[in-house]
Automatic annotation (TrEMBL):
<comment type="function">
    <text>Flagellin is the subunit protein which polymerizes to form the filaments of bacterial flagella.</text>
</comment>
<dbReference type="Pfam" id="PF00700">
    <property type="entry name" value="Flagellin_C"/>
</dbReference>
<dbReference type="Pfam" id="PF00669">
    <property type="entry name" value="Flagellin_N"/>
</dbReference>
<keyword id="KW-0966">Cell projection</keyword>
<protein>
    <recommendedName>
        <fullName>Flagellin</fullName>
    </recommendedName>
</protein>
<keyword id="KW-0282">Flagellum</keyword>
<dbReference type="GO" id="GO:0005198">
    <property type="term" value="F:structural molecule activity"/>
</dbReference>
<comment type="similarity">
    <text>Belongs to the bacterial flagellin family.</text>
</comment>
<dbReference type="GO" id="GO:0009288">
    <property type="term" value="C:bacterial-type flagellum"/>
</dbReference>
<dbReference type="InterPro" id="IPR042187">
    <property type="entry name" value="Flagellin_C_sub2"/>
</dbReference>
<keyword id="KW-0969">Cilium</keyword>
<keyword id="KW-0975">Bacterial flagellum</keyword>
<feature type="domain" description="Flagellin N-terminal">
    <location>
        <begin position="4"/>
        <end position="137"/>
    </location>
</feature>
<feature type="domain" description="Flagellin C-terminal">
    <location>
        <begin position="409"/>
        <end position="493"/>
    </location>
</feature>
<dbReference type="GO" id="GO:0005576">
    <property type="term" value="C:extracellular region"/>
</dbReference>
<dbReference type="InterPro" id="IPR001492">
    <property type="entry name" value="Flagellin"/>
</dbReference>
<dbReference type="InterPro" id="IPR001029">
    <property type="entry name" value="Flagellin_N"/>
</dbReference>
Length: 494
């Protein structure tokens, strides 16, 4: 049935044309924006995912900037540490030269002072944007990543950089928990007298037929049968004189009534002693197999730990010397710090040595070569201000024999500290560089992923545009034909 009121063909053609126009508009939008999902109405789920990923990309851009800043800061600290290490090596060369007695130690000390001032300048200048990693002990966190979990929560991750204090500042003993029990002294006085051992010869009216062999500190004195005439007192006199004639450093011998007394003033060395008569131990008695070292010992606990701010103090002859531990230090560091403090005290009669005993405990040995004994005491307390990593640098003085000898061991400790600092910064710098490279690659991967979700396929879109344009033309013609259909009814009325 034909009707002039209802044109079904025109309505169908019109709806078809509307659909074509809608698709054509969407395709043109894709071409204009380059996106198949430009707004939430295009595909709400995909749009939401893409927006979350875009937010992550922006976050990672900020992280890249943070890593670049952190890497530069750590690089400055590493280069400063390496420079300090080189300067300390130069100081060591000067200290070694000062071991000779026929050099101008005053001029060498002047060179050392200049190098020391340069180290101070390097440490003070080693900052980037106001942050100095070679001063202080607080750690610094560098933002390194954003970690998104399955439930959508986001957590920031950081790379922690430990400061490596290369200042030479003295620590301040705290007033916290008493730590004195962690350090024990072998005596309350450092004696200036030597330790002794005796060799007692049995009474003998005639020793001319006896042979003697005495070993002291690796040196041997021997008498064949017939070389000594008289009784045991004469033998003791002969043995004593022969030992003194060896010229052993720090060892002297005396004789009285058949007894040879050996005295050792060696500070940090036990002296082995042995003796035989006629090839055996008969008729010869030793008070011991060695003469112990003269130095007194401060022994640190092997069970306790050292925390940042733990300070220990040793007083020698009424003068207190203090070292306060920094982060991550051990009793070895404490012992070496106290050694540097004592050595820098200017007392030429006092010498020190750091060692580890058979039980694994670290010890500080103190020897007194003065005219009178020196009182010893110790203290310890928590919550102090840490000493600098180059503590003791200012106490290096090679103008005396004792100072030159002490400086040799102390500068080695300082070099090791600076090397450890440079190695630590180098390791962190490498990690930051690796993380920075990863963040760059991750950002590119996220961008690629977002593109695969929302970017339009331009080849397909172009082909679809051409097809829709043809469809639009055909739809327009179809609508035009459908609109002309009612005119055909007029022919029925002619």
């Amino acid at each position: 049935m034909s009707s002039i009121l209802t044109n079904n063909s025109a309505m169908v053609a019109l709806q078809t044309l509307k659909g074509i126009n809608a698709n054509l508009t969407k395709t043109q939008d894709e071409i204009a924006t380059g996106k198949s999902v430009a707004t939430a109405k295009d595909n709400s789920a995909v749009w939401a995912i893409s927006k979350v990923m875009e937010a992550d990309v922006n976050g990672f851009k900020a992280i890249s900037e943070s890593l670049a800043l952190g890497e530069s800061t750590v690089s400055v600290a590493r280069q400063a540490s390496e420079t300090v290490s080189d300067l300390l090596t130069d100081i060591k060369g000067k200290v070694v030269a000062a071991q000779e007695s026929n050099v101008d130690r005053e001029k060498i000390q002047t060179d050392i002072n200049s190098l020391r001032d340069q180290i101070t300048a390097v440490v003070g200048a080693a900052q980037f944007n106001g942050l100095n990693l070679v001063e202080g002990t607080d750690s610094v966190d560098i933002l390194s990543s954003l970690d998104r979990s399955n439930d959508g929560t986001v957590k920031a991750s950081s790379i922690s950089v430990d400061r490596q204090d290369l200042s030479s500042t003295a620590g301040v003993l705290g007033s916290g928990t008493d730590l004195s029990a962690n350090a024990t002294l072998s005596d309350t006085s450092a004696s200036n007298a030597g330790n002794t051992a005796t060799i007692t010869l049995a009474a003998d009216a005639d020793v001319s037929g006896d042979a003697f062999e005495i070993n002291v500190g690796g040196a041997t004195v021997s008498f064949a049968a017939g070389e000594i005439s008289g009784d045991e007192s004469a033998a003791a006199d002969s043995i004593s004189g022969a030992i003194n004639a060896l010229g052993l450093v720090g060892i002297t011998a005396s004789a009285a009534s058949g007894v040879v007394t050996l005295t050792s003033t060696r500070a940090f060395e036990d002296v082995a002693v042995s003796g035989t008569k006629n090839g055996g131990a008969t008729d010869i008695t030793l008070s011991g197999t060695e003469i112990s070292e003269r130095a007194e010992t401060m022994t640190f606990s092997s069970a306790a730990n050292v925390a940042e701010g733990d300070g220990y103090q040793i007083s020698v002859g009424g003068t207190a010397f203090t070292y306060v531990a920094g982060k991550g230090e051990t009793f070895e560091d404490v012992a070496r710090g106290l050694k540097a403090a004592v050595d820098g005290g200017g007392n030429e009669d006092i010498s020190t040595e750091v060692s580890q005993n058979d039980a694994g405990q670290w010890t500080l040995k103190v020897d007194n070569d003065g005219a009178t004994p020196a009182a010893l005491s110790r203290a310890g307390a928590a919550d102090g201000t840490a000493s600098g990593g180059l503590f003791g640098l200012g106490g290096i003085d090679v103008t005396t024999d004792a100072g030159a000898k002490a400086a040799l061991g102390n500068v080695e400790t300082l070099i090791n500290n600076s090397i450890d600092a440079a190695a630590s910064f180098g390791s962190v710098e490498g990690r930051i560089e690796t993380q920075s490279d990863f963040i760059g690659k991750l950002t590119d991967a996220l961008k690629s992923g977002i593109g695969s979700l929302v970017d339009a396929d331009m080849e397909a879109t172009s082909a679809r545009l051409q097809a829709l344009q043809v469809q639009q033309q055909l739809g327009t013609q179809a609508l035009s034909i459908a609109n002309q259909a009612p005119q055909n009814i007029l022919s029925l009325f002619r």
